[in-house]
């Protein structure tokens, strides 16, 4: 049984007990139906409201971390209102034979205190939930700012690259820095086959990386997550997540080559929108540099042909 189910069941049972006690007390005090309705039904409804709160807590995982806080507020409200009601009655020098009335009033205070404490606890839990959500948003913003600064540095480094190998190495380092994945390969896919330019992958064979890179170029998405089976160094099959960042760039001016980053490891089923934007920017930076290198190679080849 999950914790929220236990707490919800406790609230529900207590609410039903209080509602039943209120109805019993109402019928014990009078036989007039109207008086029973006026005296017992409102407090019974408060008890049933507590049961409804228990059902809501049992079916909602939103406030699961705050269940002890809500229970503490409900318990505190119950004890406080019950104690205040009892003290007020006893301070009035209740005569012998009226203790039953004191019990009725105390139960009324307990019922009101339980629902009041629960409401305060829910309000407090809501405040804590909003505070955690704001903290998560703040952490995401700060993390994105740090990653964007790192990406800017890698963009400057890529702009100074003089070869495809340097571009691949910087891209592999960027994926490790931005996402924390330390097993990434840069694969160049062309009509004649696939070439691994730079790689830090040790858990998956090169053939599997080439196959994954070839599959990646068949999709239009720049960032794509694909689940596949990889093989460990011992030859045993292991399930690995392959996250691909596809860079479609014409490198030689005749047949287009495609650069693909293949990341292997414990990868979530989906990346955050911020991480996808960063990877797309990385692809854009690398694409511009590779395009410049391709133009330089074409110019150099044309000059050599002219000299010949």
UniProtKB/TrEMBL annotation:
Entry keyword Transmembrane helix: yes
Domain of life of the native organism: Archaea
Keyword Disulfide bond set for record: no
InterPro entries per record: GAF-like_dom_sf, HisKA_4TM
Keywords linked to the UniProt accession: Membrane, Transmembrane, Transmembrane helix
TM segment ranges: 36-58, 70-90, 102-123
Start and end residues of each Archaeal histidine kinase 4TM domain: 12-133
Name under which the protein is recorded: Archaeal histidine kinase 4TM domain-containing protein
Organism: Halorhabdus utahensis (strain DSM 12940 / JCM 11049 / AX-2)
């Amino acid at each position: 049984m999950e914790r929220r189910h236990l707490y919800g069941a406790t609230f529900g049972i207590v609410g039903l007990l209080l509602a039943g006690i209120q109805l019993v007390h109402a019928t014990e005090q009078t036989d007039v139906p109207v008086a029973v309705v006026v005296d017992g039904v409102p407090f019974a409804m408060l008890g049933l409201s507590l049961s409804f709160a228990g059902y809501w807590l049992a079916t909602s995982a939103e406030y699961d971390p705050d269940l002890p806080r809500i229970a503490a507020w409900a318990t505190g409200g119950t004890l406080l209102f019950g104690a205040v009601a009892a003290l007020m009655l006893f301070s009035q020098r209740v005569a012998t034979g009226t203790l039953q009335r004191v019990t009725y009033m105390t139960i009324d205070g307990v019922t009101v205190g339980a629902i009041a404490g629960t409401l305060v606890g829910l309000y407090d839990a809501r405040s804590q939930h909003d505070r955690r959500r704001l903290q998560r948003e703040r952490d995401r913003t700060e993390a994105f700012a740090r990653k964007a600064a790192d990406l800017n540095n890698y963009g400057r480094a890529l702009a100074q690259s003089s070869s495809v190998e340097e571009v691949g190495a910087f891209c592999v380092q960027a994926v490790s820095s931005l996402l924390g994945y330390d097993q990434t390969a840069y694969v160049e896919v062309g009509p004649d086959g696939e070439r691994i330019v730079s790689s830090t992958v040790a858990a998956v064979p090169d053939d599997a990386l080439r196959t994954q890179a070839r599959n990646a170029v068949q999709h239009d998405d720049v960032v794509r997550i694909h689940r596949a089976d990889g093989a460990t160094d011992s030859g045993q099959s292991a399930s690995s997540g392959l996250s691909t960042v596809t860079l479609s760039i014409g490198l030689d001016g005749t047949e287009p080559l495609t650069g693909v980053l293949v990341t292997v490891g414990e990868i979530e089923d989906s990346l955050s929108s911020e991480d996808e934007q960063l990877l797309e920017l990385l692809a854009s930076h690398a694409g511009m540099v590779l395009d410049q290198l391709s133009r330089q190679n074409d110019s150099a080849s044309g000059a050599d042909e002219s000299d010949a």
